[in-house]
Task: structure prediction
Amino acid sequence: MKNLALLFVLCLIVSCGGPSKTDAPSLYSEVNNSTSPNILTDDEKEDGWKLLFDGKSTDGWHGFNMDGFPDSWAIENESLTMNSTDSAENQDILTAKKYLDFALSLEYKLTPGANSGVLFQIEEDPKYKFAYETGPEFQVIDHEGWPDKLEDWQINGANYAMYPPSAKPFKPVGEWNQLLLVVKGNKVTQMLNGEVVVEYEKNSEEWNKLRNSGKWTDYPDWGKFDEGYISLQNHGTKVWYRDIKLKEL
Result:
């Protein structure tokens, strides 16, 4: 009986001790940012992280509503970046598979006046012209160098057209920023350079009010999908993406 009681106590300590591995700060701490980009450490592999881009190949990526990889993107200095810089919407690229609950980690670097984004819960269908018509966006932008006045939900780190960032830990143009996006059920957390900048509950009263009172009223399928592709946006300005890692939760 003593052994059984001891075993029970140990199980309680293990199950109750420490934060869940699905909370954003814990997941952020699993990512090793001190190594060369586009590789996984043994610890990251053990924790369940997978590499979505190796710095050399476009395998695992395709253009929105395309079978292949678009010419408007290229690999440059072991980073995914845009060939087209005409300030117009171009072909976004998507992951090969859809994801439901996940943590996504990547690095991005901006040029002056650049605009892009990391989109998720994306659905492909010929009736959609752009990926942003179906899923939310972690905003990636040089808002300080943007020529027009922006709303607070348009600046770097925002959940575009929904939630402004609660903090502004973005780094200057030309420096690498570390992005972490965690989607677990209806809870979404966005981190930038180690700080939580957005947290929200999808389908909550607040979320529904924001969704139904702004830009997304023109897009009836926006926010409709829980499982979807992850997308990097090509807004016709130059941004570099690298060290793209994902962990399914």
Notes: The chain has one domain: 20-248. Residues 2-16 form the longest helix (15 residues). Helices lie at 2-16, 24-30, 42-47, 205-211.
